[in-house]
Design goal:
magnesium, D-Maltodextrin-Binding Protein, domain 2, alpha+beta, 2 domains, about 240 residues, about 30% helix
């Protein structure tokens, strides 16, 4: 495993330990500053940002969802230090970290997503294929997709009642767990991943890279991923019917 992934995994383990301290209550409060991603940052967001900046700063300039541009370097590291921060602040166990590293030409070289609630890790190998590991084990393997998934993942579904109703009529069940990068990392285990609305690079840079080999549509209005072409086409037809 290359030094960047080693540093990311070590930082993820440090973040895991920090979250189980537990952190002081004041870190669960949102501050008045708007982060680079457009949301108000919590003390928890910023505490985890410090952990990953300290670990990864030597590998390039960091573009963090919380603090924006940090440090210098030819490469750019796109960091969401707490993917699913509302879940973490609510102690709902579905949150993690998303990290993508682009070289000086803007080509993605490394992608790393960690579930800081259960220890699942995802990264790319040297050929750009997804691997799955754990904070508690040293072995990395190809992720094993669920053979007969019964649900999709529809992030921010609460803002799209018309599409929700159309998916229901089509019998396409879903969950909306609230952490985009994690949901992309788990896309192989589900029927589909769907996100509708404006999206930010912090949420998608690493997660989409982990979906190589699947059906992927990145449009101005939505992002759709599925390993099943029939399901993929059916949802695209639904989105068209809904005006997208």
């Amino acid at each position: 495993m290359n030094p960047f992934y080693t540093a990311a995994q070590q930082a993820a383990r440090k973040a895991w330990d920090f979250l189980r301290t537990p952190p002081p209550p004041e870190l669960f409060e949102k501050n008045t500053l708007i982060g680079a991603g457009g949301d108000r940052s919590s003390g928890l967001d910023l505490a985890l940002e410090r952990i990953f900046v300290d670990a990864l700063g030597s590998f390039g300039r960091i573009d963090s969802e919380e603090s924006g541009s940090i440090g210098e370097g030819e490469a750019t590291i796109i960091l969401d230090p707490l993917d699913g921060s509302s879940n973490a602040l609510s102690r709902f166990p579905y949150y993690g970290v998303s990290i993508a590293r682009l070289d000086g030409q803007g080509i993605l070289r490394e992608a790393f997503v960690a579930n800081l609630a259960n220890g699942d890790l995802y990264r790319l190998d040297e050929e750009g294929e997804a691997l799955k590991g754990s904070l508690f084990e040293s072995e990395w393997k190809r992720p094993i997709p669920s053979p007969h998934p019964e649900i999709g993942l529809f992030e921010k579904a609460y803002a799209q009642p018309e599409i929700v109703a159309a998916l229901d009529r089509a019998g396409l069940k879903f969950r909306a767990p609230g952490a985009v990068a994690l949901s992309l990392a788990y896309a192989r285990n589900t029927n589909y991943f769907l996100f509708v609305g404006p999206f930010r690079i912090y949420d998608f840079a690493a997660g989409l890279a982990l979906c190589k080999g699947m059906e992927i549509a990145v449009e101005e209005e939505y992002v759709l991923v599925s390993k099943d072409r029939e399901v993929f086409d059916k949802i695209r037809d639904i989105l068209k019917e809904c005006g997208l």
